[in-house]
Every structure is written in C-alpha cells, then in structure tokens.
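User: Can you help me understand a structure? I only have the sequence.
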Amino acid sequence: MAPPTTTPLLPADLLTCTHILSRAFAHTSPLIDALLPHHDTPAGHARAVASFTRSMRTDPGAHFLKAEDASTGAILGWAEWLVLDPGLPAEEEKKDDSYYESAEEREWAGVLWGPVKAARTGAVEAAGGRLLLLNLLCVDPACQRGGAGTALMRWGTRIADERGVEAILESTVAGRHLYEQNGFRVVEKMEWDVPEKFAGRATPELFFMRRPARQETV
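Assistant: Let's start by predicting it. Here is the structure, written out as tokens:
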C-alpha cells in the first residue's frame, strides 16, 4: 500500500475534517470539548468550520494540511502547523458571546487555555519569535497506524529543519509516541489551577513537548 500523500487542506475540506476531529477525540479531551463546544453536533461542526476558515484566511503563518489515501483521495487525517516569525504576528481569535453556551463555559475555556497559551508564549519568546508550532493534529480512528500521522508530522519537521528552528506542541497520552518518533521530547507535564467553582470538572492530561532546532543536511 502506498503511503498517504500530504497536500494543503482546502476550505471545502473543513466539514469533513471537523467530523474526523470529533471521531478522533470523541469526548476524551477536556480542552477540545471546551474550545470547540459540541464539536460532534451539526451546530458544533458549523462553529468549528467557521473558526478554522477564519484562521485559514487571516493568519499568514497557519498551514492546514491533509493526509490522503494515495489511491482513493479520502482524507485520513489533518493538521494545522503554525510557522511563526517576528514579522508575521498571529492574532488570537476573539470568540463572540454566541460561541459559548454561557459566560461560565467561556470562563472554563479560558481556565484550560491559560496554561497552554503561557507555555507557547514562553517558548516563542525564548526562540526570538521564530519556531514551528503544531496547533492541532488528528487522524480518523479507522485509519490510525496507517502513516497519516507520520506524514503530517514530517511536513512540519521538514520545514523546521529547513529554517533551522525549534518545533513545539502539546501531546495527549495517546499521541506522545508518534511525537517522540519524530524527535520531540517532553519538557513538562502540564498542570491546571482550577477555581473552586469548576472543581468537579475533568482537566486535560497533556505534555508540553519540544523538538530542538537542527539544520537539514543534504
């Protein structure tokens, strides 16, 4: 079987990709559930598509990729890599009030996003603003272990090596092996300071990982 091919993801692919995201994460990721409310419903799909479309059109550093079956063209998985440069500042998307069910859900999303944003910001500042960041990667559960995840990772590591920069990401327990195979190492297990009002809610189990800068050799 031919390995998956990796090509730019098109706006027309985004609905299919949100379905893949929902199947891949189900409701096992508190962070995904908080940032993409009801991602397994038609309304949630529509919100996610609108959010990703906005990033695709307005963030010059955002690169959306899909891994396709070489024979059928079916999308097996997808990823968003951010190629960061001091001259290309990425603005964080501001969600309007209708995006979340309530002010409490918006606050909860902020609680979970805070440590992720802080870890990313620290790494970006330490690198002088130049690095690669894997914002999201998901593979359809029916297609896992078929090379899609590796193909999506190799796009980013190749660009990082061409630029001679570090790459960073946050990993779930399930994704850690794939990332380690591609040169990433755990820097820390992330922690969340949860306000008392949210004490009963599950928090993510994520690892902040880095891949050192290296120069591609020919």
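Now, to help you interpret it: The first helix runs from residue 14 to 25. The CA atoms of residues 114 and 192 lie 8 Å apart. Let me know which part you'd like to focus on.
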